[in-house]
Amino acid sequence: MDLELIESFLSEQREITPEDLYQNFVTIEDFWERKLWHQLTVVLVEYFNTPSSAPQRLPLFRRFILSFAEKINQLKFVSLGLLAATQCSDEPERLAFLTDLTAKVNKPASQDAYVYALVAASDVKLRLDDLDGARKDLDTAESILDTFDSVETEVHATFYRTNASYYQAKAEFGAYYKNALLYLACIDIESLTLEDRQHRAYDLSVAALVSDSIYNFGELLLHPILGSLAHTPHSWLVDLLFAFNRGDLAAYSVLETNLPRCPLLEEHKTFLWQKISLAALTEAVFRRPPHDRAMTFATISQETRVQPQEIEILIMKALSLGLLKGSIDQVAEVARIHWVQPKVLDMKQIENMRLRLKDWDSSVNQLGNWIEKIGKDVWAA
Q1: Above 60 in pLDDT, residue 72?
Q2: Burial of 217 by CB count in 10 Å (0-12 exposed, 13-18 middle, 19+ buried)?
Q3: What is the C-alpha to C-alpha distance for residues 71 and 2, in angstroms, rounded to an integer?
Q4: CA 15 to chain centre
Q5: What is the three-class DSSP state of 152?
Q6: Rounded to two decimals, what is the model's pTM?
Q7: H/E run at residue 57
Q8: For residues 167 and 329, what is the distance between their CA atoms, to the nearest angstrom?
C-alpha cells in the first residue's frame, strides 16, 4: 500500500480514536514511521486487547497491519488477526477472514502461527456445524504440533480447547475429558470468568461420569476448577464424583435423586449404576489387606449390592478395564485379586490406610518378639 495512503488512513483513524487510547495511537504512528517493528507489535497487541478499540480493529488490520505483516513476529500477527476477527459481522465472514489469514502464514518458518490460525478457523467451522471440516483442520494441526520440540503455550491451549469442543459436539466424552483437562493445564484458570469456570467444571464432571473409559477421577478431583461449583445449584456433582471415587453406594443412593436435573446423567442412569458397582468392588478389594484378597462371590454381592448371578460378569468387567488384576475360580465361586488400580484417596480412605499400617506395624512387632523368644541365645543382641 502506498505510504501516503497509509498516512492518510492513520490520520483518519486518529480522529476517531477513543480518548483513553489516543496516546497509544500516536505511539503506533511513531513506531511505524521509525520502522521499530517489535515495539510496534507490542503496542498494537495492547491496543487491540483494549475493549474500546473494537470498532477500529478490522480497518487497522486490513489497511495498516497487512502492509508490514512479513516484518513482524508471525504468531503475534495471527494474534492481532484473531482479535480483529471478533469484529466480523457473522460466522461465514469470520471464517473467510481466518481462512485468508491462515494462508498468509502457511510457510515453513511460521508453522506455529499457521497452526494457531488453522485451529481458530476450525473453531468457527464447529460453530457452523461443519464437524468434518473442523476435524480435518484439527488433525492437520495436531500432526504439525507433534513435530515441534516446543511451542508457545497459547498455541497448545487453543488446540486443546477447540479439540475438546469437537469431541463434546460428537459426544465422545472420554476424549473431551482428556482435552479439556489439557486445555486447563495450559492456562491460568483465574483468567477465565467465574461463569466459564463453572461451565467447564460442570461439563467435565458430567463427562467423567458418563464416559465408559474413565473410572479414575483423580485428576479432576484434585483440580481447582472443581471448586467453582461450590455454593451453586450444581454442587451435588462434586459430591457425586467423590461418592464414585470411594465406591460409596449409600451416598450414591441419596445423590441419584439429583440425576433428573441433568438430562445426560438421567439418560445414562443404568450405566451409572454399573459404574458405581465397579467402584464399590474396587473399594472393597482396596480395603482388604494384600494377603486377604480372595473374595467369595457372596461377599462381593454383599459389598456391591449386585445380584449373585451377575457377580462373575462384574469381576470380568473390572479385569478387562484394568481396574483389578487377578483370577476367578468359577467352581469355588472365588475371585483372587492381587492388584487394584491406584486412585486419589479422601480423608476417610486415608484413615483406613493409617489403621492398616498400624496393624501391619503391630504384626511385625509381634513377629519380632516371637522370633526373639524362640531363638533365645541363637540371636545376637
Answers
A1: yes
A2: buried
A3: 17
A4: 45
A5: coil
A6: 0.88
A7: helix 54-63
A8: 41
